[in-house]
Write a structure and sequence with these properties.
α3 runs parallel beside α4 and α7 packs across α9. Helix content is 41%, strand content 21%.
Length: 206
C-alpha cells in the first residue's frame, strides 16, 4: 500500500514522476464529468473566468472553447500543474486569452470583484477549509457572479470513500455540506444537480 498511497497523495498537489502521471490521468479520466458539469453552467458570455485548481489545464481549454470571447485565468498551487497547464494552453496564452498562475485558493492573488465566473472541477476535496475558500471565491467574483463546482463524488459513493481513506489530504463532501458552506460564505441562489446514474454532482451558486 505504501507505493499506492504515495501515488494517490499526488492527487492534491502533483509533483515528480507520480505527479506527471496523475496530471495526465486527470486530463483524460475527468473529461466526461467535466463536460457534463459544463453543460449545466447557466451563465452567458462571461468576460473573465477563473479556473481554480486547474490541474493539467484541460478544463481551461474546454472553457475557452465554450466561451470564445472570454479570458480564462487558471490557478493551481502545484508548480508542476501550472507548468503542464501552460503547455496545454500555449496558443491561448500567446494570443492573450489565457494565463495560468501558481497560487493558493484560500488566499488568491486577485483583486476584488474581478471575475464573472469561477469554476472548480474535481478539486474542492483538497481545499483547506470550504467556508474559508468559498469566502475567498466570493471576494474575487463580481456582484451577480457565478461559482460552479463539479465533483465526481457526492460524498457517499463507495469508490470515493475508499480513495478518501488512503489519501491523507482528501476530504469528501456531500451536496448538503457544500451548500451549507456556500451559504456561510455569503452565496445565494444555490442550485444542485445530481447525475441520474453516477455519483457526479454540480453545484452552482450566485
Amino acid at each position: 500500500m505504501g507505493l499506492l498511497n504515495k501515488f494517490f497523495d499526488n492527487a492534491g498537489k502533483p509533483a515528480g514522476i507520480f505527479g506527471r502521471v496523475m496530471i495526465w490521468g486527470m486530463n483524460v479520466f475527468h473529461e466526461r464529468v467535466a463536460r457534463w458539469g459544463m453543460s449545466h453552467m447557466n451563465i452567458n458570455d462571461p468576460s473573465e473566468i477563473a479556473e481554480l485548481g486547474c490541474g493539467g489545464g484541460k478544463n481551461i481549454h474546454d472553457l475557452l472553447e465554450k466561451y470564445p470571447a472570454s479570458h480564462v485565468t487558471g490557478l493551481d498551487y502545484s508548480p508542476l500543474s501550472v507548468k503542464k497547464a501552460r503547455e496545454h494552453n500555449k496558443d491561448a496564452i500567446i494570443s492573450g486569452r489565457c494565463e495560468v498562475i501558481e497560487g493558493d485558493v484560500s488566499a488568491m492573488p486577485f483583486a476584488d470583484r474581478r471575475f464573472d465566473l469561477a469554476t472548480a472541477f474535481e478539486t474542492i476535496y483538497f481545499w483547506p477549509g470550504l467556508e474559508r475558500c468559498f469566502a475567498e471565491v466570493r471576494r474575487v467574483l463580481k456582484d451577480g457572479g457565478h461559482f460552479v463546482i463539479v465533483s465526481e463524488s457526492d460524498g457517499r459513493d463507495k469508490p470515493s470513500l475508499w480513495f478518501n481513506s488512503i489519501i491523507d489530504a482528501m476530504n469528501l463532501y456531500t451536496p448538503e455540506e457544500i451548500v451549507s458552506a456556500l451559504k456561510s460564505a455569503g452565496f445565494t441562489k444555490i442550485h444542485t444537480e445530481h447525475h441520474e446514474s453516477h455519483s457526479w454532482i454540480v453545484v452552482e451558486a450566485v
